[in-house]
Amino acid sequence: MNTLLLLPILAPLAAAAFAATVGWRRLSAFVTVLAAGSVLMTAAALGSQIGSGARYGVGHLLRADALTVTMLIVIGTVGTLATWASVGYINAELAHGHTNQRGANLYGVLVPIFLAAMSLAVLANNIGLMWVAIEATTVATAFLVGHRRTRAALEATWKYVVICSVGIALAFLGTVLLYFASLHAGASSGTALNIDVLLAHASQLDPSVTHLAAGLLLLGYGAKAGLVPFHTWLADAHSQSPAPVSALMSGVLLSVAFSALLRVKSVVDLALGTGFLRAGLLIVGLLTLLIAASLLVVQTDFKRMLAYSSMENMGLVAVAAAAGTKLAIAALLLHVLAHGMGKTLVFLAAGQLQAAHDSTAIRDITGVLARSRLIGGAFVVGLAVLLGLPPFAMFASELSISRALAGAHLEWALGAALLLVVISFAALVRNGSRMLLGPPDPGAPTIAVPRSVAGALVTGVTLSVALGLTAGPLTELFRTAATMLGATP
Amino acid sequence: MTQATYTGVLDLAAGAFLLAAVLVVWRRELRALVRMLAWQGAALATIPLTVGIYQADAALIVVGVVVLLLRAVVLPLLLARAVGTEDHERRESTPLVNTTTSLLITAGLTVLAYAVTRPIIALDPSPATRAVPAAFAVILIAVFVMVSRRRALSQAVGFMMLDNGIAATAFLITSGVPLIVELGASLDVLFAVLVLGLLTGQMRRTFGGTDLDQLRELRD
Fold first, then answer.
1. Which residue range(s) make up the domain with A266?
2. ipTM of the shown complex
């Protein structure tokens, strides 16, 4: 078990060490792709072994259960596609002089470290260790956001590091308070932060200290998940990062941070009842949806548009978590996976558009479908996934979330969320069609598609279609995760 | 160490800890801010050292020594290196909130800290826990410093104060978090401050200064 639990952390770290020794080359880039792929393989192996229980390793520091496997699948899938596309993307950046060999070397080392930190975050049984891993993602991605070293990139990096560090510091204070409550509930000092121990002692946790802790944890991990009030870093960071990093941050990092909240929620719900975090998640989720929808309507930059679409989806996921039923949690996990794939497609396609036009303004780009069938097609498929159109998986997940909200007697929240989702839908369709359709400008530059980007896009489209047609064994996995998280039936 | 000395030393450390935060609000000279931060780090390290000696807990004493090295020496040195050499770079620019108002707000935040921490003290009314309002006050003051200052370095100082406040809370209410978490968290903070220091340097090269008001290119 130890080997399986450590592999998703050690494989990317080994890839980082290799990249650090030989620098950015085709070989080191493909070793990273292999490491990301091994995360996905491990997820599959773990999934076949754990059943409905949890397995522990390294002296109960690590844990694998259905939620871990789900998140490892998201990390592995998006990680493989994004690192694969990185090969062509970074080589093109080098060719255009947007970065130099040193920048590329740094990129090659930091991306696998980022993957390892996310794997650790979802594998940690100790919620203190989980916090350490999530803060480590901030440190690892700081210089990835500032990769281009322009004024705008520097500004985005500063805001990202400061806002996320403060947010996540609040989560640490919440963790300390939970530790304090757990010690007073009779847990022993070495294990008081372990998820299994916290769950076992949940009913004896002091309610007023736990209230304080839960509020801080919601704000803190919410910051990293792109939820209000610490959401302001998100659009800046996602629009300045290199496209594969945007895909990883938007498609994986946000949901990894949210999975930390789900872990915390399972403990807090047992200690305080479901009411407290339900109210908190509803407020935060609906406000996030509101801000995302209003900024999507006025957006003129396509990378920022995609960033706000991520916020919209995280808001919806928070509302689904508030409903808290088995149906809702299983649906939100499917939503997270489908969103990760869809966002990877659009961000990777957007990266090639940015490279071709040297601009991220929507008005600079027209007729993409007529100019490049691959980039246009991938953008269309990605957008269709994100819009929740059938046959893609978000159609099913959004339908289930709606049913779950109605079932949990949250009709008003359902109404508000639906309205905001429809507004976002309209904004995405309008901006998307402006870029994709129409005749191409005669002077428009050719959209280059490096082979590795093409490979990642075709694979991503295939996977998105496959997930839409059938979730297969994943349906059972999501249900198991929901039950394990203490979802009400 | 007797119970009375123990309580006395803890209260003194917590008081010095809070005082350093108030002085950070008061001063404008960036080098002075970093010096205050070093003193605050030393006051913070006194807490685990005292508790460790009182409870004869060797591991906690070791943690205290590490905290002293990291927060009173290494991190302030890293920040001091990031202070610019030009004159206009060495002082905080005209603050958003003037000093008198800032100090009044600080007092208000301290009172708020006492109110917020009541459930914590109610759960465990030991001498160490009774000092926890000081740590919470530092957390609140740190957030205030971060939103009211306009230099990159002042924000970094605010972030470190926030972190000191959280570490102090952990030492006071639970004698510190488990060792692996403490190590990981310290490493993260070290890297975060390193990153902030490097970014300050890049900002000075790119913008010709570290005034955060220049960061207004990205907006909707």
1. 2-484
2. 0.96
Q: Do B123 and A157 count as a contact with CB atoms less than 8 A apart?
A: no
Is B123 in Cβ contact with A179 (below 8 Å)? no
What letter would DSSP give residue A227?
Answer: -
Q: What is the overall mean pLDDT for chain A?
A: 96
Cβ atoms of A170 and A216 within 8 Å: the answer is yes
Q: Is residue A121 in some structural domain?
A: yes
Residue count of chain B: 220
pLDDT tens digits along B45-79: 999 999 999 999 999 999 999 999 999 999 999 99
B116 and A212 within 8 Å at the Cβ level: the answer is yes
Count of structural domains within chain A: 1
Are the CB atoms for A71 and A139 separated by under 8 Å?
Answer: no
Of the candidates B35, B18, B26, B20, the one whose C-alpha atom is nearest the C-alpha of residue B149 is: B26
> Is the dihedral angle over the CA atoms A261, A264, A265, A266 positive or is it negative?
positive
CA separation for the pair A145, A156 (Å, rounded): 7
Average pLDDT, chain B: 92
Interface membership of B75 toward A (CB under 8 Å): no
Q: Which of A142, A208, A235 sits opposite B119 (nearest CB)?
A: A208
Of residues A238, A448, A447, the one with CA closest to residue A347: A238
B196 and chain A: CB distance < 8 Å anywhere?
yes
> Which one of A154, A161, A179 has the shortest CB-CB distance to B196?
A161
The whole-model pTM stands at 0.97
Query: Does residue A438 lie within any of the structural domains?
Result: yes
User: Nearest 5°: phi and psi at B94?
Assistant: -50, 120
Q: What is the CA radius of gyration of chain B?
A: 18
